[in-house]
């Protein structure tokens, strides 16, 4: 296992914490060639660049202004019709303008393109979008904006369903079980990952998407009384919903990290081999 450093985010949540954990888990799985490529192209660990694809949309973090990157906003999610619980590419990802198209595109670009500066940006996007696909409400119903319009309270705090799965549950878990110690939380997730079967479907993107949709349709939208939550009423969730949700979130973090590591090993090994000067045989 390569030694890596997990950054401490200024704002807790799936946005920074979740993406950082996924990238940290993925980096722990890199083989020698992939790790060498990463060290050549990055000045930091993967966990420190995992949130870049979100940060560029904030004018506070981008001196050139967030408008420059507005084209990439649709690449963070997949919208389906209400309660359509299977991904249909032609319907849900027109012209590949969704998270599926993004992961496929940046995987290809990393394998084939030679420009090192462009490679770095492609790498940043790929690391982030693999994480997005594994956050269930980034693959969800477009009519309520992935749960953003479904509002209420969780542990007596106002929130919406999307934010709850982005930040609320993960933050609550970190604070109450791990005393806000991110390194301890990572160690816990890392050991759980090692105790699971080695990931082999490193590029089955439709499978990852349908896993998220299955969670959305079978669990996320049902409250503690098993009533469907929607944008026309307010939810009030507490420990029952929390206890059934945090294991799902942790499973998705581990899957994302394991799969991202395996995907990068495939991509970066191919890239390294394709750019190696062949040895001339003596005659």
Order the strands across the largest sheet as they lie in space.
Answer: 4-3-5
Number of helices: 10
| Average pLDDT metric | 89
Number of domains: 1
Distance between the termini: 42 Å
- Specify the CATH architecture: Orthogonal Bundle
CATH superfamily: P1 Nuclease
CATH class: Mainly Alpha
The topology string of helices and strands comes to: HHHEHHHEEEHHHEH
The general outline is globular
Helix content: 40-55%
Percent of sequence in beta strands? 5-15%
- Structural class by helix and strand composition: mainly alpha
What characterizes the major β-sheet?
3 strands, mixed
What is the number of strand segments?
5
> Could you list the spans in which at least 5 consecutive residues all have pLDDT below 50?
1-13, 277-283
CATH fold-level name: P1 Nuclease
What's the gyration radius in Å?
19 Å
Descriptive terms for the model:
283 residues, mainly alpha, two-stranded parallel ribbon, 10 helices
Show the helix and strand layout.
Elements: H1 14-27, H2 32-41, H3 52-55, E1 78-80, H4 89-92, H5 99-112, H6 116-134, E2 139-141, E3 151-154, E4 157-160, H7 161-178, H8 182-194, H9 205-220, E5 235-237, H10 239-274
Parallel strand pairs: 1-2, 3-5
Antiparallel strand pairs: 3-4
Helix pairs in contact: 1-6, 1-7, 1-8, 1-10, 5-6, 5-10, 6-10, 7-10, 8-10
């Amino acid at each position: 296992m390569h030694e890596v450093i997990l950054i401490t985010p200024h704002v807790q949540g799936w946005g920074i914490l979740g993406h950082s954990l996924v990238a940290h888990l993925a980096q722990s799985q890199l083989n020698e060639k992939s790790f060498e490529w990463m060290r050549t192209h990055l000045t930091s660990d993967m966990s420190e660049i995992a949130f870049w694809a979100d940060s560029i949309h904030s004018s506070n973090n981008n001196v050139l202004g967030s408008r420059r990157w507005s084209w990439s906003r649709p690449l963070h999610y997949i919208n389906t019709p209400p309660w359509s619980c299977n991904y249909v590419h032609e319907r849900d990802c027109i012209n590949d303008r969704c998270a599926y198209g993004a992961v496929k595109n940046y995987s290809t670009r990393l394998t084939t393109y030679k420009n090192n500066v462009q490679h770095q940006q492609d790498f940043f996007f790929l690391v982030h979008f693999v994480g997005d696909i594994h956050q269930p409400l980034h693959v969800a119903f477009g009519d309520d904006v992935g749960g953003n319009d479904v509002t209420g309270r969780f542990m007596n705090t106002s929130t919406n369903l999307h934010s709850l799965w982005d930040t609320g549950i993960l933050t609550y878990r970190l604070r109450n079980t791990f005393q806000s110690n991110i390194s301890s939380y990572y160690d816990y997730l890392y050991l759980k990952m090692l105790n699971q079967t080695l990931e082999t479907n490193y590029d089955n993107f439709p499978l990852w998407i349908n896993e998220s949709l299955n969670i959305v349709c079978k669990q996320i939208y049902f409250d503690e009384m098993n009533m469907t939550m929607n944008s026309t009423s307010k939810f009030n969730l507490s420990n029952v919903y929390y206890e059934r949700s945090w294991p799902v979130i942790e499973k998705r973090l581990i899957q994302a990290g394991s799969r991202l590591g395996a995907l990068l090993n495939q991509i970066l090994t191919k890239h390294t081999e394709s750019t190696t000067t062949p040895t001339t045989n003596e005659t």
